[in-house]
């Protein structure tokens, strides 16, 4: 019976050593997983930061382009207004020239002397 007790103690000691090895392995694996998770979290934070910076740059670029577009539209509107004024002035000049040509033509038809000419 004593031999049986010794054998059981030896088996228990062997199991305790095996259990300790498994615990050590588990602890090492757990620590590796924690390190991997921490590194993943760091990479995630860095990626998020880069993404937010990129979004901010894109927003800034979009705002700049929007301002440039607004300014280009204002310049186009001013040019359009200037061109309309020029067209109106030219149309007025054309109307005056036509009127003067009509007056001269009527005067010639009537045989009236034109300014600076005698009959």
Number of strands: 0
Task: Figure out the total of helices.
Answer: 1
Order of helices and strands: H
In what range is the share of β-strand residues? under 5%
Q: Structural class given helices, strands, pairing?
A: mainly alpha
Arithmetic mean of pLDDT: 93
End-to-end CA span? 163 Å
Rg over CA atoms, rounded to whole Å, is: 49 Å
Helix content: over 70%
Looking at the chains present, what oligomeric state does this protein adopt?
A: single chain
Structural shape: rod-shaped
What does this structure look like?
- The chain has 119 residues and is mainly α.
- It is built from one helix and no strands.
- The longest helix has 109 residues, at 2-110.
- The mean pLDDT is 93.
- Residues 66-119 are annotated as: Disordered.
- Residues 66-87 have a biased composition (Basic and acidic residues).
Brief overview, please?
Residues 66-119 are annotated as: Disordered. By secondary structure, this protein is mostly helical.
Highlighted features:
rod-shaped; single chain; mainly alpha; 119 residues; 92% helix; 0% strand
Write the layout of secondary structure elements.
Elements: H1 2-110
